[in-house]
Design goal:
Rossmann fold; Helicase, Ruva Protein, domain 3; alpha/beta; 3-stranded mixed β-sheet; binds zinc ion; 4 domains; 5-stranded parallel β-sheet; Zinc Finger, Delta Prime, domain 3; elongated; 608 residues
Length: 608
């Protein structure tokens, strides 16, 4: 046959059209239900057969019509699921010539007048057969008026009339109609069954075909027997005397869904080169960039449905399996990919070259896909007990110091001195010791804790900076005073019981006096707060604002943060929070590191 492809050839799909339920493959559930109904004498007046194209709806309708009207080879048989195929009825129905079995294609006869004929005819008894049977293909195409007219007949159907509807779009059929029909969903033929079916036909036709070639055809047919047989036809016409797998792959060209899936898989594996190569191959085969991205969006949607536990669309099983694998990535990643793909799809219209734009989308996806989601990042950080991200140096600054109670903030410039300053310890157990310790440390004289000169019998706060003072009052619950200090005072100098400041802002004239009183009360000795006209530094509030900017800049430079910012297009750092310092659980400490202690040392010291 291969050398004479131009001669008329009986198409395989027609030649092997199922003429009995035995030869109808992949629809066991339907056959079982029908035989039960038949055995119980509960056949409905109307049936609706639904399913994707080419899986045997029309064939089923004809087999059913034969079964209903078959009289058996001896003319005595009743309705059956195994029509004899030899009685007059069987033969006439098989050749679409039966006077009582009328087939109508709703796609071309949508109007009420077309249906009127049927309705009028239904009122007459069948001429020769048991039942008058109306087969209406693509019934969803009927107009609303036509449906209404049909409904009247369905509501009170004559005893000897049966309707068999077939449709690819059951949702477009009015519920009023559906509720009067026995519904049968035809399934896509499973891959393995399809391969076996194709192998059987190839053998009968003396077509030599590689198993792999048949598998490719079966996959491309997406469960439609008619499509599979057409492909087998094409392949047989193309190949000389053997159908090879490679030839099939060439012939199928851009075997849409599986190719799209392969591109996505490559992206998700972070394999940019492979993804782009696959895309280019599809492009060379004539696939539109825009369509491919739309298909990818569809696949991501279906995978997300699966990940969410919802039912995906009716898809061939091998695609479903691939989608399930994709769904394992989780909703967050799929959603992110969807977003990226959607943006890319929009950008495509503005791009001078849709192909280039689509490639860029794939590159971005492949780059992004292997990256963890924020949830993953946090989880990893929490699991990672010795994170390599932890910078060695600054962590020491925050080392919890046994001798630093809340009242004595560890804000003294050199961390070492904190540990060696039990002066500020709340317990009065070792009051003498601190004095000598302090004299031994290397603090500049004006920063030395002022309490050193005092007779110490009770805990005394050590004020070495304006910030210390503000922190102290904050901790004491004097929030307003603390806030005013931060906002209105510019430090000039601080020494033992003497603070010199500049005043900034309005209504702060009374602040120095108020502060002197509060400090004296707190320390138990008189403090002098003098106001200077020059030489003031930044207010604490200003310093904090600067620090915030610096922290953010420093944070942006951290590899992890940089990655997060890259992943989330348009993201920005709005706040850097220290985790509560008390917990010592590894996980939380690790997060804390990245947020604050991970800053470069110079930033950390400026924070103080
Ligand atoms: Zn028969």
């Amino acid at each position: 046959m291969s050398e004479q492809t131009s001669t008329p050839y009986r198409v395989l799909a027609r030649k092997y059209r199922p003429d009995s339920f035995e030869t109808l493959i992949g629809q066991e559930a339907l056959v079982r239900t029908l035989s039960n109904a038949l055995a119980l004498g509960r056949l409905a007046h109307a049936f609706v057969l639904t399913g994707v194209r080419g899986i045997g709806k029309t064939s089923t309708a004809r087999i059913l019509a034969k079964g209903l009207n078959c009289e058996g080879s001896d003319g005595t048989g009743g309705p059956t699921l195994s029509p004899c195929g030899v009685c007059q009825h069987c033969r006439d129905i098989a050749s679409s010539r039966h006077i009582d079995v009328l087939e109508m294609d709703a796609a071309s006869n949508t109007g009420v007048d077309d249906v009127r004929e049927i309705i009028d005819g239904a009122n007459y008894r069948p001429v020769s057969a048991r039942f008058k049977i109306y087969i209406i293909d693509e019934v969803h195409m009927l107009s609303r008026n036509a449906f209404n007219a049909l409904l009247k007949t369905l509501e009170e159907p004559p005893d000897n009339v049966k309707f068999i509807f077939a449709t690819t779009e059951i949702r477009k059929v009015p519920v009023t109609i559906l509720s009067r029909c026995q519904r049968f969903d035809l399934r896509r033929v499973p891959q393995e069954m399809m391969i076996t079916h194709l192998a059987g036909i190839a053998e009968k036709e003396s077509i030599e075909a590689e198993q792999g070639a048949l598998a490719q055809i079966a996959r491309a047919s997406e469960g439609s027997v008619r499509d599979a047989l057409s492909l087998l036809d094409q392949a047989a016409a193309m190949g000389a005397d053997k159908i090879e797998e490679t030839a099939i792959i060439d012939m199928l060209g851009q075997a849409e869904t599986s190719r799209i899936l392969a591109i996505l898989d490559a992206c998700f594996a972070g394999n940019t080169a492979e993804a782009v190569d696959l895309f280019n191959a599809a492009d060379a085969g004539g696939a539109e960039a825009e369509t491919m991205l739309a298909d990818m969006l569809d696949i991501l949607h279906q995978a997300s449905l699966i990940a969410a536990g919802a039912t995906p669309a009716d898809l061939p099983e091998d695609q479903l399996n691939q989608l399930r694998k994709m769904a394992d990535m989780g909703i967050a990643k799929l959603g992110r990919a969807w977003q990226l793909m959607l943006n890319g799809h929009r950008e495509l219209k503005d791009a001078p070259s849709p192909k280039a734009a689509a490639q860029m989308v794939l590159i971005r996806l492949a780059h992004l896909a292997p990256m963890p989601t924020p949830a993953d990042i946090i989880k990893n950080l929490q699991e990672d007990t010795s994170p390599p991200l932890r910078p060695a140096g600054p962590a020491a600054v925050r080392q919890p110091t046994p001798a630093s109670p809340p009242a004595a903030p560890a804000n003294i410039a050199a961390p070492a001195s904190v540990q060696e300053t039990p002066l500020s310890a709340p317990s009065g157990n070792a009051p003498e010791a601190p004095v000598s310790d302090i004299s031994g440390n290397s603090l500049p004289a004006e920063l030395a804790p002022i309490a050193a000169d005092n007779e110490i019998s009770s805990p005394v706060p050590s004020f070495t900076s304006l910030r210390d003072i503000a922190s102290y009052f904050e901790e004491q619950g004097a929030q307003i005073l603390a806030a005013r200090i931060k906002r209105h005072l510019r430090p000039v100098s601080i020494s033992a019981q003497k603070l010199e400041v500049m005043i900034t802002g309005e209504n702060a004239e009374d602040l120095p006096q108020q502060l002197a009183r509060a400090l004296s009360e707190a320390s138990g000795s008189a403090w002098l707060v003098s106001v200077s006209e020059t030489g003031g530094g930044k207010t604490i509030a200003e310093e904090d604002a600067d620090k915030d900017v610096k922290e953010k800049q420093a944070a942006e430079d951290l590899p992890l943060v940089a990655r997060v910012l890259e992943i989330f297009d348009g993201a920005e750092i709005t706040a850097i929070k220290a985790m509560d310092a008390t917990p010592v659980r590894e996980g939380e400490a690790a997060i804390e590191d990245t947020e604050e202690e991970g800053l470069p040392p110079e930033t950390s010291s400026q924070m103080r």
